[in-house]
Amino acid sequence: MHNPFAHHYSPANPLPNSIGAPVRELHAGYRDKILSHLLQLNEDDRRMRFGTQTPDPVIASYVERLDFVRDTVFAIFDDNLNIVGLAHLAYLPIVKGRTREAEFGVSVLPEGRHKGFGMALLERAAIHSRNTRVESLFVHCLAHNKAMMHLAHKAGMTVEYAYGDADAYLKLPPSNPSTIISEAANGQWADFDFALKSSLKQTSDMWNLFIRAG
Ligand SMILES: CC(C)(COP(=O)(O)OP(=O)(O)OC[C@H]1O[C@@H](n2cnc3c(N)ncnc32)[C@H](O)[C@@H]1OP(=O)(O)O)[C@@H](O)C(=O)NCCC(=O)NCCS
Fold this sequence. Notes:
The chain has helices at 31-39, 43-50, 56-65, 117-131, 146-154, 177-213; strands at 24-25, 72-77, 83-91, 101-108, 136-142, 158-162, 165-171. Strand 6 (158-162) and strand 7 form a beta hairpin. The chain is built from 6 helices and 7 strands; from the N terminus they run βαααβββαβαββα. It has one domain (24-213): Aminopeptidase (3-Layer(aba) Sandwich). It is of the alpha+beta class.
């Protein structure tokens, strides 16, 4: 997908205030769709996402334990209203004397890749982090995860390698009126996108019923 908000990333200029795809914030009612998304990831993708082998029951337990009050979960939907891209922004416990930190985890289904969805989810999570007073965003990934490493470098993250793992950090500047407006605008775009896809899907489902009945 062409990103109309193309931006030159650097550690001093991390991530733009505009986001290149409609990213929707999810509530607990989406657990089934989240589970279905994660179960579609193959063994390698699950290892990249969670850092270890992750069988179905472990994924089910992760989804069951997602805390939508403490953390934030973001998604990009396809035309059938299935989740094609998913991100979990987990707020780390506040430690006295340390800045507020959050951990970002992301997955995009193979058919949705290379369209800028991974970057859009990272952008939205970074802006949301700024707007919720997080000063440091962190991604834990396997060092050979080329796509995530590319995204991290592109976002201006500092990457530290250790024993086949890599930790990428992004120091975030405080929020400002433009980050607040940008997040609200992306949320509205996502609501509109979702409503439009719902309505198109309803029409198409009705036609299918009609054709089958005929
Ligand atoms: C990492 C992941 C989320 C990227 O999703 P995506 O929607 O394809 O990401 P984007 O389209 O925004 O960008 C991907 C970038 O990585 C690049 N890329 C993809 N594969 C690559 C590779 N093997 N080597 C180098 N760069 C690669 C793409 O060219 C693109 O860069 P560009 O925008 O500069 O052209 C997706 O591959 C995924 O779900 N992987 C499995 C789970 C995972 O690894 N999660 C990350 C750890 S939490």
